[in-house]
Each structure stands twice: as structure tokens, then as C-alpha cells.
Amino acid sequence: MEVSVLYVVTGPPAAGKSSWIRAHAKAHDIVIDLDLIALAMAGPGADHHNHSPELLRVVYRARQAAVHEAEQLVDKVDVYLIHTMPQAKARARYKRLGARIITVDPGEAIVRQRVKDMRQPAMEAVVTRWYRDRRKGGSRPVTTQASRAW
After folding, report:
1. What is the mean pLDDT of residues 92-119?
2. In this structure, what are the phi and psi dihedrals at residue 142, rounded to the nearest 5 degrees?
3. DSSP state of 88
4. Contact present, 76 and 1 (Cβ < 8 Å)
5. Sequence ranges of the domains in the chain
């Protein structure tokens, strides 16, 4: 009998967290990705990563509800949850749930170039916070890898 797992996928913006999940998740697994939820709730032609505050308000609540429900199912199905920068309280909850923490980080220079090329300028501050937090010990990598050849 195969044991189900909660995968918490962390990493800076544009690191390849969604790509890592696409390479590992199966069709019957649960995937909780804020950007995918936002796209599902946004109008046609919406940007994949630049969401309005109004949309994000709804999306964050939907994500929270999805995480709560998925936590009840981790003994039945694999759950993949993107959580860019989980704080201590969330990390403790994931540990209690027996989660496998996967950190996707192809390196700061690569991430900064991807953000410059593909994301809105505000994401640069998130990248800076992510690496600063990691240097302080906040995000402890289990797996460090590039997501794909960009």
C-alpha cells in the first residue's frame, strides 16, 4: 500500500515551484497553487502572476479553505501545496502533519533574472525577502534544484 504525502513546495518567486509540481504530481493528486487558483477565478486573459488586490482577497480565502480541507485528506491522497515563505507557525503545522518540505531554488542570480524577464517589478522585493529569510535560517531547504532549463 502506497503512503500518501503532503508536499510543501517552497522557494522564491520564479524558482520553478509550479514546474516541479507538474513534473511530480499525478492527475488524482491535489495541487494548491495560488496562481492557478487566481487564474481560475479571474476573467479571461488575466495575467498569470499579477493579480489585483480584490482578486487576491478572494483567492487567499479560497486557498485557506483548500489547505484546511486538503489537510484532512493527506492520509488518502498526495497533496502538493505551494507556500513560498512559510513562517514558524506554518512550518510547525506542516511538521505535525508529516509534510515533506521541498525547496526549489535554482540560485539567486537565476531567480532575479527570471523575475526581471517574466514578473512584475514588485516581485524583486519578495525575492530579496526570501533570500534574506533563508540566510537567517527561516527557510531550510531539503531539496535544492533547478526546475527546468529556461
Report:
1. 95
2. -105, -45
3. H
4. no
5. 6-32+75-135
The per-residue pLDDT for 110 is 97
Per CATH, which fold does 6-32+75-135 belong to? Rossmann fold (3.40.50)
The DSSP-derived string for 108-134 is HHHHHHHHHHHS-TTHHHHHHHHHHHH
pLDDT in tens, 35-83: 999 999 999 988 888 889 999 999 999 999 999 999 999 999 999 999 9
Among 6, 11, 9, residue whose Cα is nearest residue 129: 11
pLDDT of residue 145: 43
**pLDDT score for 47:** 83
Smallest CA-to-CA distance from 105 within 148, 149, 150, 146 is with 146
Q: Provide the β-strand partners of residue 75.
A: none
Alpha carbon separation from 91 to 22, 70, 94, 133 (Å, rounded): 23, 16, 5, 14
Residue in the structure block whose three cell numbers are 531547504: 141
Cβ atoms within 10 A of the Cβ of 47, count? 13
**CA atoms of 145 and 141, how far apart (whole Å):** 10
Angle, helices 108-118/123-135, rounded to nearest 10 degrees: 170
